[in-house]
């Protein structure tokens, strides 16, 4: 199979390439509440990553939506555990800091990724079914239990066994 870096998917619109030029060619993103939740998660969790890294983080969220172990919509997955400091699934929702978008260009970019993911245009196999990830800066207990599927940028990805 092709290397993950070279992986692409054929779509009605052409070929998805995990690069900035491809993302720049996509139309301005828009969507409803589920798109907004995914865009917000990508903004706060992955905006500094490569395009491939943003797709991978989004893929984990959608893998959770598809899993019986997690809630069945994007907003419920993203907000799961919110309310207790650092007891949530996605740190930005429970770190005590306000979620304020200061980088409109990054918001647009992650919004395009969210739109492509939600429309089913992305192939959805960058992380080999991962439902967890963390940055290299931390080492959560669960990371010793679940098999790591891949590392993309500053994130390690895992699949629950």
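Q: What amino acid sequence fits the structure above?
A:
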């Amino acid at each position: 199979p092709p290397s993950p870096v070279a992986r692409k998917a054929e779509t009605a619109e052409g070929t998805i390439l995990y690069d900035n030029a491809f993302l720049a060619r996509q139309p301005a993103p828009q969507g409803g509440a589920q798109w907004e939740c995914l865009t917000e998660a990508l903004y706060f969790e992955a905006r500094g990553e490569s395009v491939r890294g943003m797709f991978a983080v989004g893929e984990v969220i959608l893998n959770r939506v598809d899993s019986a172990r997690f809630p069945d919509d994007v907003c419920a997955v993203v907000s799961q555990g919110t309310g207790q400091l650092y007891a949530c699934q996605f740190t930005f929702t429970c770190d005590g800091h306000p979620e304020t978008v200061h980088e409109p260009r990054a918001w647009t970019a992650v919004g395009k990724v969210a739109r492509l993911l939600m429309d089913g245009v992305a192939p959805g196999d960058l992380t080999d079914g991962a439902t967890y990830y963390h940055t290299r800066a931390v080492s959560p207990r669960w990371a010793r239990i679940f098999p790591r599927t891949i590392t993309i940028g500053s994130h390690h990805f895992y699949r629950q066994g």
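Q: And what stands out in the fold?
A: The CA atoms of residues 47 and 106 lie 6 Å apart.
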